[in-house]
Design brief:
By secondary structure, the protein is α/β, with parallel strands linked by helices. It has 3 domains: about 5-245, Aminohydrolase, N-terminal nucleophile (Ntn) domain (Glutamine Phosphoribosylpyrophosphate, subunit 1, domain 1); about 255-440, 3-Layer(aba) Sandwich (Rossmann fold), CATH 3.40.50; about 450-590, Rossmann fold (3-Layer(aba) Sandwich), CATH 3.40.50.10490. It is about 35% helix and about 25% strand. The strands form 5 sheets. Strands 3-2-4-1-10-9-11-15 form an 8-stranded antiparallel sheet, with helices on one face. The longest helix is centred in the C-terminal third of the chain and has 22 residues, at about 425-445. The chain starts with a strand and ends in a 17-residue tail after the last helix. The mean pLDDT is about 95. The protein binds 2-deoxy-2-amino glucitol-6-phosphate. 2-deoxy-2-amino glucitol-6-phosphate binds near residues 299, 346 and 396.
């Protein structure tokens, strides 16, 4: 999730832009830059790493100008580097961008065929090339941007400066947030409220497909067709801390609600519904040469690996072994050069997972990683990486990283299944169609937060919880238990429901809330008998069940319903109520939800 700041007014703007970028640092970034209109031409200053590197450059170069744009980059396409940092300039056009241009490869090759030379690996740079082409064709600034946006597919929030146009900046958004701040004789653009909250509380939130043409005295908003839109500013009453969390009390809650967007960003430009296929960022795995897959990770990422086993064995019919990073290298694993080792890690820096990766490489395996942080150690030591586009995950308890890992593993399973022949075109097409519905269905689950809050209040004082699931939802039971224990400090255990009779049922009494994952599908009848066993022993049962299941309500104490989806996709929905339940219970208990005691966001020690 990159950061964007723009200023047009009477003040020298470079320090103001950098101040705005500093207020967006919480979002995480790997490089930064500014473009300052200086004598009719934009000067571009960029640096890799933290903002201090940019401020040193600015101190040397001393750009002057009262019109400028700034950017902090969280890499998605192209590794962190100065030449991949924004702003990108080509000809007369300087651009900063947040989002993913899905058809960037096709547009890039068209531009290269027309003689354009590129200086970066980013999807963003093509926007500067396209705008410059339109300017050269005689269009004005706004018309040039509008014509360019019509060619883009995917998500963008952009801010543009054009050489020779010293009185205007152009902003536009589609599927990525962008705000226009209203000042007195000056105006601002930002990707998020905190960047400009110190300058104004009057903000206009651009909506899908809208363009803002901003001068010192005027903000003209229009749609892509050029129709003017009247959008009065809103008064923002948040304090700075609330603003960083998007109005949520904690980053974790903000990130729980970011999941539909994060899953969309992870799957959208890697699926081809027309070909009923999925792509893994330039990594080709021919199943004919893969004896076995090893999915290795820690914590929540290990739970994703357990789901991945179900997906890959079911859809690709390739054997999968799952292991904890901390165990793998000590058991002298039987890895061969015909195996594919998949490291799953949000941070890409977890020492146990990295050590396991190195052991697998030493034994000759190819390595693919599923990672959220571009350029992290695990991604650099892999033969290929599927980046989850979750954006920076600030809360220590992993939420959006987890569901984007699940999404990446679904893509991998489809990719392998289509190549092993185990997944035919028709079934793959149905699965992809259903997968593309999931972000909306995730939103519908998250919209029931109030129901979950009521349940949380009922059980917030419990000492122990049990989480039960079967099949592909068993790892979700583990994940739900981990979420609760790591942020509320209540003891919780996840168990395969079928294991109840082999011991855990001795724990059941009226003090023991039991969360049961009971969506429709294979094993449903057995889950019903499991939850009946719990209730027969006075245990309290909270069930996560499929909408339309009319019978389960009478068998449980509390019911949370989710859309009825195919088993492969259920984990993306069943985990959401468990995240919200854990969050709300922890919040009621007053723990430090974003920074729980004894925990770190990235465990870089063994
Ligand atoms: C999960 O909520 C925890 N933050 C923790 O278990 C985490 O998943 C684990 O440390 C692995 O981290 P990674 O995904 O960055 O490798």
């Amino acid at each position: 999730m990159c950061g964007i700041v723009g200023y047009i007014g009477k003040q020298p703007c470079v320090d103001l832009l950098i101040g705005g970028l500093r207020r967006l640092e919480y979002r995480g970034y790997d490089s930064a830059g500014v473009a300052i209109m200086d004598g009719g031409t934009t000067r571009i200053l960029r640096s890799q790493g933290k903002l201090n590197n940019l401020t040193k450059l600015v101190a040397q170069e001393k750009p002057v100008g009262t019109l400028g744009i700034g950017h902090t980059r969280w890499a998605t396409h192209g590794r962190p580097s100065e030449q991949n940092a924004h702003p990108h300039k080509y000809g007369s056009a300087a651009v900063v961008h947040n989002g993913i241009i899905e058809n960037h490869a096709q547009l890039r090759s068209q531009l290269q065929s027309a003689g354009h030379k590129f200086s970066s690996e980013t999807d963003t740079e093509i926007v500067a090339h396209l705008i410059d082409d339109e300017i050269k064709a005689g269009k004005g600034a706004e018309a040039a941007v509008r014509a360019t946006l019509a060619k883009l597919e995917g998500a963008y929030a952009i801010c543009v400066l054009i050489d020779g146009v010293s009185d205007t900046m152009i902003a536009a958004r589609h599927d990525a947030p962008l705000i226009v701040g209203v000042g007195d004789g000056e105006n601002y653009v930002a990707s998020d409220v905190p960047a400009i909250l110190n300058l104004t509380r009057d903000m206009i939130f651009l909506e899908e497909g809208e363009i803002a043409t901003v001068t010192t005295e005027q903000i003209a908003i229009s749609d892509l067709a050029g129709n003017p839109i009247d959008r009065p500013p809103q008064r923002i009453l948040w304090d700075a801390m609330m603003a960083e969390k998007g109005g949520h009390k904690h980053f974790m809650l903000k990130e729980i609600h970011e999941q539909p967007r994060a899953v969309t960003d992870t799957i959208r430009d890697r699926l081809s519904p027309s070909k009923a296929d999925a792509y893994i960022d330039g990594f080709e795995a021919d199943p004919a040469n893969v004896r076995k897959l090893f999915l290795v990770a820690c914590g929540t990422s290990w739970h994703a690996a357990l789901v991945g086993k179900f997906l890959i064995e079911s859809l690709a019919k390739i054997p999968v072994e799952v292991d904890l990073g901390s165990e793998f290298r000590y058991r002298d694993p039987l890895v061969t050069d015909s195996d594919l080792f998949v490291a799953i890690s949000q941070s890409g820096e977890t020492a146990d997972t990295l050590a396991a990766l190195r052991e697998a490489k030493r034994k000759g395996a190819r390595v693919l990683s599923v990672v959220n942080v571009v350029g992290s150690t695990i991604s650099r030591e892999s033969d290929g990486t599927v980046y989850t586009h979750a954006g920076p995950e600030i809360g220590v308890a992993s939420t959006k990283a987890f569901t984007t890992q699940l999404s990446a593993l679904i893509l991998l399973a489809i990719h392998l299944g289509r190549r092993s022949g185990a997944l035919d075109e028709a079934r793959a097409g149905e699965l992809i169609t259903d997968l593309l519905q999931i972000p909306e269905q995730m939103k519908s689950v998250l919209d029931h937060e109030a129901t979950i809050n009521v349940i949380a209040r009922r059980y917030a004082t419990a000492r122990d919880f049990l989480y039960l699931g079967r099949g592909i939802n068993y790892p979700i039971a583990l994940e739900g238990a981990l979420k609760l224990k790591e942020i509320s400090y209540i003891h919780a255990e996840g168990y395969p429901a079928g294991e109840m009779k082999h011991g855990p049922i001795a724990l059941i009494d009226e003090q023991m809330p039991v969360i049961v994952l009971a969506p429709r599908g294979s094993g449903y009848e057995k889950i019903i008998s499991n939850l009946s066993e719990v209730r027969a022993r006075e245990g309290k049962v909270i069930a996560i069940a499929s909408r339309g299941d009319a019978s389960i309500g009478d068998l449980v104490d509390d019911l949370i319903q989710i859309p009825d989806v195919r088993p492969e996709l259920q984990p993306l929905l069943t985990v959401l109520p468990l995240q919200l339940l854990a969050y709300r219970i922890a919040d009621i208990r007053g723990t430090d939800v974003d920074q729980p005691r004894n925990l770190a966001k990235s465990v870089t020690v063994e």
